[in-house]
Amino acid sequence: MEKNILRPFMDILEKIIFPIQSVCIYCSVLTVFITVMAREVFKYSIVWGYEIACFFVIVLLFIGMPVNLHHNTNLKVTALYDHMPPKMQSAMNLLHFVIITFVLILMAIGFKGYMGKVGHVALAASKFPNWLYYGSIGIGIFLSILEMITEFLDFFVKKDNKQTPQ
To answer: Do residues 39 and 45 make contact, with C-beta atoms less than 8 angstroms apart?
Structure first.
């Protein structure tokens, strides 16, 4: 294969995801700040503050999952990995790929089952429907599976062995 047809799409998606993540982290912190200030200074409790702050964190984490998978910035223990021979590192990379894909499939199955049972229910304080509140988890799982498919296709793209002049 000369070129991975999904990689340009995933690169564009990454440029869209980063601003979404930035907005979500600031909105989450701002929501917590406003909620705490309202409670401590004005003695007024904002009951939906926690749900909204959690919503932004859920979007931040799950929409950002495919970007973390692409840049290999997910958690891993490098103390042993960095000292392994290259062939062993390749085997570990393949094992990592298989495990991540398996976990994403399990997450998708669990998410489908969960939303099938309580997707129509509304949250207690904010009255947001569950599908809106937790929908970003499903989107993140779908995009992460798409990223893993893209990573799989990257294995078959011919690498150019020519060195670029400096």
So the answer is: yes
How far is CA 78 from each of CA 68, 83, 89, rounded to the nearest angstrom?
16, 8, 11
Closest CA to 143 of 16, 25, 51, 4: 16
Cβ-defined contacts of 57-62 (< 8 Å, 24+)? 57/24, 57/28, 58/133, 58/134, 58/136, 58/137, 59/20, 59/24, 59/136, 60/21, 60/24, 60/25, 60/28, 61/140, 62/136, 62/137, 62/139, 62/140, 62/141
Structure tokens of 83? 């000292």
* 3-class state of residue 124 by DSSP: coil
Distance of alpha carbon 90 from alpha carbon 125, whole angstroms: 49
pLDDT tens for residues 62-112?
988 888 888 776 656 667 777 888 898 888 888 888 888 899 999 999 988
Residues 6+ apart with CB under 8 A from 13: 66, 143
- Mean predicted lDDT score pLDDT of the chain: 84
Q: In the prediction, which pLDDT does 27 show?
A: 94
The pair of three-digit structure tokens given for residue 27, joined into one six-digit string:
């909105």
Q: Is the pLDDT of residue 57 over 80?
A: yes
